[in-house]
Specification:
353 residues, alpha/beta, Rossmann fold, Helicase, Ruva Protein, domain 3, 3 domains, 5-stranded parallel sheet, two-stranded antiparallel sheet, 9 strands
């Protein structure tokens, strides 16, 4: 097949995508069809330029945006309670606040059409490892929404959120539009994780905070303009949740749009229950072990929970259990034992050094 044949085949594919894209705004549809006509003329004249790649990428991106596709919210408070209890131990204050928020969302949905836009944006504030991300995921699971996480610590430029104009080489949409494309629906739950860690440079941070304000403010996000797409996109159906370790770097204007839920650190007693009943069964399976191949003396849990001193979260606790399970797995693979029982005498050997 000649190169020109490939070009015409690609043009036909792009034209079909434009035709099949549901809810594509008419103004945008006309723009894309004009692009196709221009590319068709270039191909017929035997010209091949970088514009062909640029335009085809743009058409691919715009037709991948979910303009009308959405999930239907599951508005069941009892289901929410069960999900939170199943996935999170302790944190009663945080769970109660989440349930209050969901109750408001349920009432607004039952009595009006723009419930999400009337609800405040949740800001989960707490130290690393206290369960902010998993709590946001539980809210998405409860509502039956697609979940997407954007790590704000990796955002070093405003263009990463808002996109770069398609005239620039290697331009692409920003993270918000990419999240919509990845989930395939216009109403996912998007977690803006650790927004306090966005660009460390003061000027850039203020620019990013201004964009976040536009994304989160219901009066502005109905017509969010990504520089790459260059067309207003309605984000009012997206449920945004933010997380942060501290609020010190956040602007007052941004804080005014959010409802703060403080996530307390876990006590040692809570960590014992989390490690024994939540983490260990999952880690045993991940390690290829069977539950009966590892037994831990109940009196040892305080020493496992705090082997190196105080830690506010449970990430290091998870790593400790993973290290224990790996050593047990190696002994079983080497044939040294068929079952390992952790006691006060051998605990030090199995703990990570």
């Amino acid at each position: 097949m000649k190169k020109d044949d490939f070009l015409f085949e690609e043009l036909n594919t792009l034209s079909k995508k434009i035709e099949d894209t549901k809810g594509l705004p008419e103004e945008l549809r006309v723009r894309l069809e004009q692009m196709i006509d221009r590319l068709d003329r270039m191909a017929k004249l035997g010209h091949y330029a970088s514009e062909f790649d640029t335009s085809s990428r743009y058409i691919e991106s715009v037709t991948s945006i979910p303009w009308v596709e959405e999930t239907v919210d599951i508005l069941d408070l009892e289901r929410a309670k069960e999900s939170l209890e199943r996935n999170h131990y302790g944190m009663q204050y945080s769970k109660d606040r989440i349930l209050e928020y969901l109750s408001t969302l349920i009432l607004l949905t039952q009595r009006s059409k723009d419930a999400v836009s009337k609800s405040p944006v949740l800001l989960l504030v707490g130290l690393q490892g206290v369960g902010k991300t998993t709590l946001a995921y539980s809210v998405a699971e409860t509502l039956g929404r697609k979940f997407e996480r954007i790590a704000m610590g990796g955002i070093g430029s405003p263009t990463e959120l808002r996109g770069r104009a398609k005239s620039f080489p290697e331009a692409e949409p920003g993270q918000i539009i990419k999240s919509l494309i990845r989930t395939g629906v216009k109403n996912p739950l998007i977690l803006l994780d650790e927004i306090d860690k966005a660009s460390g440079e003061q000027g850039l941070r203020m620019d990013i905070m201004a964009i976040l304000l536009e994304i989160l403010d219901p009066k502005q996000n109905v017509a969010f303009r990504d520089h790459y797409v260059d067309y207003p996109i309605d984000l009012s159906n997206v449920l945004f949740i933010c997380s942060a370790n501290t609020t010190g770097t956040l602007t007052t204007a941004l804080m005014d749009r959010m409802e703060i839920i403080k996530m307390p650190s876990y006590s040692d007693q809570e960590k014992v229950v989390i490690a024994r009943d939540y983490l260990l069964p999952q880690i045993i399976l991940k390690s290829g072990l069977k539950p009966e191949e590892l037994e831990i003396d109940p009196d040892l849990w305080p020493g496992i929970v705090r082997p190196f001193g105080y830690d506010s979260g449970i990430r290091s606790l998870g790593r400790t259990l993973e290290a224990i399970c790996r050593k047990v797995a190696m002994e079983i693979v080497e044939g040294k034992s068929t079952k390992v029982t952790l006691t006060a005498d051998n605990l030090k050997y199995y703990l990570p050094q």
